[in-house]
Amino acid sequence: MRRISRAVAATLATAAVLAAGGCGQPAPSADPLERPADEIRLYGSDGNMLNAVGDLLADYPDALTGMKGTTPLSRLSQSFRDRLRSIDSQLKDEAYAGEAYDAVVISALAAQIALTTDPKAIAGQINGVTTGGTACETPGDCLALIDAGQDILYKGISLGLGGFTEQGEPSASTFGILRFAAMNHLDSRQTQYVPAGDPTTATTKRPPAPGTPSTGGQLTIGALLPHTGDLAGAGPPMFAGALLAIKEVNDAGGVLGRPVKWIDGDDFTDGAKAKGTVERLIGEGVHVIIGAGASSITKAVLPTVLAAGVVLFSPCNTAAELTNVDDKGLYFRTAPPDGLQAAALTDIIMRDGVRRIAIVARDDAYGKGLMDSVRDDLIGAGLSAADIKTVPYNTDEPEFESLGATMRSFAPEGVLIIGYDETAKALDSILKVGFTSRAI
Q: Which end of the chain is flanked by fewer CB atoms within 10 Å, N or C?
């Protein structure tokens, strides 16, 4: 409880700064009478604040104009953006690209420090790669320091604010507040970067000393990320970030004198199918698996991963319940937990003057966890429980035909959708009954 309250306190302190700074636009009136009855504010979260989701609403080319939401997002340099597109020239989004890059690089550096490809030894070094030591930002610089016998502090793309906690997740991170503009595409010029979390919660525990140098094989890293399924739209930047990291680690000499091997894999945004991918990757000798994409998929495959004794390292799991999951020290993530995102979303909604809101969310670890956290934070911020309607939906067969009528009956001032690619179908139902997004 103490760790959570400190993190939320840090986020709320940031919210006060945001309230003072604003977005460079006039503050909206909180009076609902000043808005047309059919005009609502739309909000999203990290699973749907993507150009790929906007592209699915071809029948409503400007319907998302003004929609706002949050995602863990570091300020990416133009150099990193250019390098990503050298991997995937068609890349539309960049969410979690930095986190995927860092997950691969941290794993490689941990193996180099451990002097072995043994997964448990790698896991024992991962937190230490991000704390203490001499700061370094690139695989080449970090590997050179390790070879010189120095302790390192990898800063990387997404770890500029703080290292990992004892639980193997960021102690502090940056959220992007994103906004859709014309043609349902995000306007990067309007993106705000908001620090969240508490760097003092980073672990101070020293990693174990490396053992005898291994004569074992090549470090093998496998992917368990969404090529297909409901989260497929979020997959390309993660694959691009991971593949860029593999390239740059290998360009710097690889790990233990050999190039790192990458094995592709799809999590299908489906627990049963993802287990099949995990079993295949384990059969092919992976030491580290990068994934899964969705928190619910990680929960589904974690027993199989732990039984095999390999590392599972997700760039985008955000479910708060994974912080204290029984993972035998083999699960890590570069994405911050949803308690921080909930506070950021609550701040946006309250500053917009919304006093009656519907929350439509996936009924899984990610959606329900974030929905409940936002609801609790909104009530804590002064909204009445009666003015918050929660609408969880089945993730296997989402049904949105009646969603528009539900919104009509509730008459919200704002709608927050916590979902993946299926968000487009939910919005289609809301737009069909005549609601429009409030652009300002």
A: N
